[in-house]
Structures are given as C-alpha cells and as structure tokens.
Amino acid sequence: MVPDFLENLETIRTCVDHNYEIIKLILQDAEYMFENQTQEIMDEDEDVKKTFPTAADMDKVRTTLKQFVRDWSPLGQQERDACYRPVIEEIKNRFPSHQCERSSVKILIPGAGLGRLALEFTKLGFTCQGNEWSLYMLLASNFILNKCREENSLLLYPWVHQWSNNKYTEDQTRPARLPDINPAEIPEDSNFSMAAGDFLDVYTEPDDWDCVATVFFLDTARNVIAYVETIWKILQPGGYWVNLGPLLYHYADMPDENSIELSYEQVKKVIIKTGFQYEKEVMDVKSSYTQSADSMFQYQYNSVFFVVRKPL
Ligand SMILES: C[S@@+](CC[C@H](N)C(=O)[O-])C[C@H]1O[C@@H](n2cnc3c(N)ncnc32)[C@H](O)[C@@H]1O
User: Fold this and answer.
1) Is 68 in the pocket of ligand 1 (CB under 6 A)?
2) pLDDT confidence bin for 47, thresholds 50/70/90
3) Which residue's alpha carbon is nearest to atom 14 within ligand 1?
4) Taking the domains of the chain in order of start, what are their residue ranges?
5) Minimal CA–CA distance to 26: which of 128, 123, 114?
6) Does the beta carbon of 137 lie inside 6 Å of ligand 1?
7) Res. 29 pLDDT band, cuts 50 70 90
8) Is the model's pTM score more than 0.90?
9) CATH architecture of the domain with residue range 5-309
C-alpha cells in the first residue's frame, strides 16, 4: 500500500547519521571550551552504562537541534522577530548610540540558548554576556559561535525525530541550513562572553549589570521569586530588566522536583514588591518556541513583554 515506506525509513536513517556527524564536530575539542576549566570527555569504550543516554538526554539533544533553527537558521527568522526583536528594539532605544557609549553598557542574557540574542547585542556595540546551564546548549553554542565562520556552511535535519503531524513525507527530513549570518562578524573590540552555570549561582555580585534581558526564561525557575530577587540584586540602580515569554513552568508536574508556579498576576506583584517600577507591559504577544512551520501541529503563546526598572 505504501511502496515508499521502507525507502523513507532509509532516508531518515541517512539524516540521523548526518546529524551524528555534526554532533561529532560539535564535540571535537569541546573539553577546551571553558576558559577556566577542562572537562573530561569519556572515551567511547569507557563504561558504556555510565554514558548510555537517558530519554531525558535524548530530549535535550532534540531540543538543541531545534534551537539551532530558532537561533541560527533563516527558518527561525519569524520566531526571532517575534521573541528577540521587541527586546532588542527596546534596549536599543533606551541606550541610543548617540547618547551613550554602548561598550560601557553591560547586558546579561540568562538562559541564552545558542547565543543569538547575546550576539545581536554585541553587534550593536554593547558589552554582553549570555548565561547557560545546559551542557548541550553550551557545547552547541561554543561550536556555532567559536567555530562556524561561514554563512550557510552547515546542514542539519532538525525535524528528523518528529514522527507525528507531518503533512508531507519529506517534512520529516527537510534540512535546515545555518548559520544565516557569520557569527564571527562582530566589532573588533567587542566584549562578548558566555558563562556556564545556574543563573542563581553564577550571579551574586550586586549592582553589576545595566540591563538583564530574559526571553523564554522566567518559567525555567523552580522558584520564580528567587529569579526576581537575583535580577534585582545584580542590576545597578537605574538598570532595566526586559522580559518576553510565557509561563510554561519547567518543573511543574514533576513529582520529584520542588517548584512553585505563580500566575503572571502573582509574579507581577512580586516584581513590584521587590521594588521594581513598571515602565512597559504588553500582554498577549504572539510567539512560539522551536516550532516547525510545516507541521500540522501549530501552537502559539500569548507571551508577556515587560520592561521594569530598578529605581535610581
Ligand atoms: C526555553 S529555553 C529559551 C532559550 C532562549 N532564551 C530562547 O528564547 O530561545 C530556556 C533556556 O534556559 C536555560 N536555563 C534553564 N534554567 C537555567 C538556569 N537556572 N540558569 C541558566 N540557564 C538556565 C535552559 O538550558 C534553556 O536553554
């Protein structure tokens, strides 16, 4: 009945193999990716049980493949326009280049994913640091930011693990080309870095940042109040916190994880009680996260976008 079925499975296998070649490139020399630490990468034949990936590991690999599209492929442009553009425009307008020396404005991006938003601020002349705790994201962002030097030099099959909601057979094996820009093309004297670790552990220095920009990050918290308090602490007086995203709490419904899930109304009360002043609030910002435009399954977040300020 379906004569191309087995042939298609073969095509899928070829795409998976291709992705694996890219993953091997990502892992090459990855033990040297930290400036202040070396990470031991196990040999393949070392205790296989220890390294055998869990379902959660595989899920993270799939998410990372899709994050490549969101951050670095022309196919992710629509998501970047919806999620990153408003944040970039807002910060650009608050720190106009004719009124301030942008290189002395320090922007922090917690939960930076594969670093695109952080790179965009660097290109605009700001001093910018992305922060990530997922080793999967860190390995992949190290690869794209430090090793890719040419537009469209990579081919990935980000949807190859998507077995449902394919309209056409080839939707599953459709490639994504990346990066859409050369990540190395940043001003020569740029101050751009990525810092590894849990946002709550890494950032303890008070009054250190002029701006914190969070996109699809707030809901990664076990305790969102701790995020709000940390942002308050690390911002300089007069500093801005710009946020865009939904509240899809990552640890909700996980029996072994402690987590509190506040509504946006409650989060807003916490933000105000902490001392922040609201300067802007836009509800229902239509946005999505690592979605395939071809899939029969489409969803949309009504995200909240806000700008709050720590008073001078
Ligand atoms: C939903 S993703 C959003 C990524 C990116 N901001 C974007 O909009 O595409 C959330 C990211 O935050 C990272 N993350 C979660 N908890 C974190 C924490 N406590 N500290 C630093 N990064 C964290 C995750 O690894 C993930 O890459």
Assistant:
1) no
2) low
3) 111
4) 5-309
5) 114
6) yes
7) confident
8) yes
9) 3-Layer(aba) Sandwich (3.40)
